[in-house]
Write a structure and sequence with these properties.
Keywords: Oxidoreductase
Number of strands: 21
CATH superfamily: FAD/NAD(P)-binding domain
Structural class: alpha/beta
Strand content: 25-35%
Pfam families: DAO (PF01266)
Shape: globular
InterPro entries: FAD-dep_OxRdtase, FAD/NAD-bd_sf
CATH topology: FAD/NAD(P)-binding domain
Organism: Psychrobacter alimentarius
Protein name: FAD dependent oxidoreductase
């Protein structure tokens, strides 16, 4: 591969990099996609599959603080911290706490709302354009409660979301049973979100997009890890595991692995850390549920897919190097079973762990700095915001007017922190 023939090198072949690659290549940009492992096999292949347009608030808010000690002390709880990692986590965590203050919290909320309210339609249009409709479903999702004390909280959440245009319907216990009969009658109420969706086969979507990208003339280079990057007068020098390259322009879309390259390319130390997420796939349970079901009390999600029922969730802070603790994945079965009438078939189950790239303000970096484009840091919403983010990068690339105000996602918001 001669690097001079390409207009743009994209670093990172996850769902963010791949949707952006297809979007730009289709518009005549000659794109090379560099992936450290295999296309789409990082966080993109193991996420919950939920197009979560209803999640329009930051990942952490002040109301959660009083619950954190109990969650950390609960070995089967939704939050775990590797205490050996705490010194490295602290700078990021302090910024996260500062963003819980009312003013920044509201700004972040509005920015998430702007992205998410456009995300489902963007995915539906993208699915139609690139023959993905078989796997991109828009049948809604549920958020349930089983603690009687949570019903009031759920009701307030419903009203708050409806007030800002995030449409939902508050379901009684009986209405919930009618909509999702497999749920146990300990599920007391739920919100139904009609304007959400889910991916029934992430592998098929990634395979189809990779095929489409190549058919459009794009080049894929797998097992090509970018080790160092620097900007010079002759271009952008990339040191990779497959040799040196000179790129005219690059897009950094390496998810949780973007931090060091972003510093080399822009000089900005992005407050980015990784929330390690787990899933447990039950291959014999693909008919159990009709739509994704999240639990407000248990803080995890069950997503029906063609390959089985995916139980996903938990947050673990332990960095990129610590080996996976697959007991975290197995615990999800203990969370799911009490919510369902019939015993789950866990035979041949498969455990997985991946890295969510989370900024301290819960917002992605979607920006252009000279010849460097940035598209990473989408935390729990990478799949949800992938297509709308790709469209924003296209607007930057072609100097077009943005349909979404780009300022909240620009890199400059972090320059003042250092």
């Amino acid at each position: 591969m001669t690097t001079s023939q390409f207009d743009l090198h994209i670093i990172g072949g996850g769902i963010i990099g791949l949707t952006t690659a297809v979007t730009l290549q289709a518009r005549g940009v000659k794109v090379a996609l560099l992936e450290a492992n295999e296309i789409g096999q990082g966080a993109s292949i193991g996420n919950a599959g939920h197009i979560a347009t209803e999640q329009v608030f930051p990942i952490a808010d002040a109301s959660m603080l009083r619950h954190i000690p109990a969650m950390l002390l609960n070995p089967t709880g939704p939050l775990r911290l590797d205490w050996r990692y705490l010194p490295r986590l602290m700078p990021w965590a302090i910024k996260l706490l500062l963003n819980m203050r009312p003013e920044p919290f509201e700004c972040i909320h509005q920015a998430l709302l702007s992205l998410n309210k456009n995300s489902l339609q963007a995915w539906q249009d993208f699915a139609t354009q690139w023959q993905l409709h078989e796997w991109v479903q828009a049948n809604g999702s549920l958020l349930t409660v089983e603690n009687p004390n949570s019903i009031e909280m759920l009701t307030k959440h419903s009203q708050r979301l409806n007030d800002i245009g995030v449409v939902n319907e508050l379901l009684t216990k009986n209405a919930l049973q009618e909509r999702e009969p497999a749920l146990q009658d300990n599920q007391l109420a739920a919100l139904f979100f009609p304007d959400t969706g889910h991916i029934t086969d992430l592998t098929a979507v990634i395979k189809q997009l990779t095929y489409t990208f190549r058919q459009l003339g794009g080049e894929v280079l797998e097992h090509c890890c970018v080790l160092d990057a620097s900007v010079s007068d002759i271009g952008i020098h990339l040191t990779t595991s497959q040799g040196d390259m000179i790129a005219k322009k690059i897009l950094l879309a390496a998810g949780a692995h973007s931090k060091s390259l972003a510093k080399q390319l822009t000089g900005v130390n992005v407050p980015l850390d990784t929330e390690r997420g787990y899933h447990l796939m039950l291959p014999h349970e693909n008919k159990r549920l009709l739509i994704p079901v999240s639990s407000m009390d248990r803080r995890f999600i069950m997503t029906p897919m063609q390959a089985g029922l995916r139980l996903a969730g938990t947050v673990e802070y332990a960095g990129l190097e610590t080996p996976a603790n697959m007991k975290r994945a197995q615990m999800l079965l203990q969370q799911a079973q009490p919510m369902l009438k019939k015993t789950l078939d866990a035979s041949d189950s498969m455990s997985w762990m991946g890295f969510r790239p989370s900024t301290a303000d819960s917002l992605p970096i979607i920006d252009k700095v000279d010849q460097v484009f940035l598209n990473f840091g989408h935390q729990h919403l990478g799949l949800t915001q992938a297509v709308v983010s790709a469209r924003m990068i296209a607007s930057y690339y072609f100097n077009e007017t943005h349909s979404i105000d780009p300022k909240p996602y620009q890199l400059n918001r972090f320059r003042k922190l250092f």
